[in-house]
Amino acid sequence: MNGLASIIIVLYNSSYYLEACIDSIMAQNYPHEIIAIDNNSTDDSCRILREKYPNVRLIESRENVGYGAGNNEGVKHANGEYIVVLNPDTIVEGRWLQELIKPLKSGDKIITTPKILTYNGEVINTCGAINHFSGLSFTRGLGDTSSTQSCQEHISGFSGCSFAIRREHYISLGGFDKSFFMYNEDADFSWRANLNGFKILYIPSSVVRRLYIKNDAQKFYHL
Predict the structure, then answer these.
(1) Distances (CA, A) of 47 to 43, 89, 145
(2) Are 74 and 86 in contact (CB under 8 A)?
(3) Global pTM?
């Protein structure tokens, strides 16, 4: 086992916040590789990666295959023992990666997910997810101050914005269902994980800041 973390980032016209995201990942002190899957962006995302971040492995798709399918493609190119999924509209804080990976080293059937704050770090976006028996999924802790939700605990769902899992377990669970183009793919994956005996663990010492979109017509359509 190599202990390497393969960080998968799916891009679609992500140039505005991409450099801040990559720079924050590169400051992590846990061994990792970065794999970027570009979903046929029309902006400068690919150029930025080629020119400024030659160590990032860039996979360019000829079409926008969606978030889940993009991550599945990234896993095919991963060399790491651990898969770490991350949205590009994020900045990760200092111990984000090592704290996410630490519980996975036991080899148990565990998925970890961090505390995700809004981009300015003032309030919580989500601390994992609440998977409701109706099939709906809700942001856990949305709007709470950043200092709350400070206890590590088992929860019902992880956030597709950022989570970590052993590569062998991602594959055994089938990864994301590509029929979910965007949104709710994490809820579906969480249900399958729970049904297959996995525990989803919320890690408050692992912190991400995210440019969260609350109200957007396209988002509600896909939800």
Answers:
(1) 9, 17, 37
(2) no
(3) 0.92
